Amino acid sequence: MDYFYARGNDAAVALAEHVGGSIESFSKLMNKKAEELGLTDTHFVTPHGLDEEEHYTTAYELAKITDYALNINEFAKIVKTKEYTVNINRKL
């Protein structure tokens, strides 16, 4: 399966591969979570949501996913962060 990588989406792919071992395995995890959340109009194929015929959701179910995620303290903290300085080898 070919995946188009737009700017920033390579990070989503790297995270998916780290968490799930592969894009396909990560998608299975996401689909399992969607099922647990009772989402019936959502199906994941990619970690970034770019065009893929079998990858879809609705605005309503995306809002339900967001509501679920915002109840995870670490996620809520990350998404409300406006600025963060990354130090690599103790250098800016």
Which descriptors apply to this entry?
single chain; 92 residues; globular; 49% helix
Question: TL;DR of this structure?
Answer:
It contains 4 helices and no strands. It has 92 residues and is mainly alpha-helical.
Cα-based radius of gyration, to the nearest Å: 15 Å
How many runs of DSSP E, i.e. beta strands?
A: 0
Helix content: 40-55%
Distance between the first and last residues' Cα? 38 Å
- How much of the sequence lies in strands comes to under 5%
Count of separate structural domains: 1
Write down the oligomeric state. Answer: single chain
Please identify the structural class as seen in this structure: mainly alpha
Largest β-sheet summary: none
Number of helices: 4
User: Which ranges are low-confidence, i.e. pLDDT below 50, for 5 or more consecutive residues?
Assistant: none
N to C succession of SSEs: HHHH
- What best-fitting shape do the alpha-carbon axes yield? globular
Mean pLDDT over all positions: 89
Could you characterize what this model shows?
The chain has helices spanning 9-20, 23-36, 59-70, 73-79. It has 92 residues and is mainly alpha-helical. Helix 1 crosses helix 2 (23-36). It contains four helices and no strands. The chain has one domain (9-79).
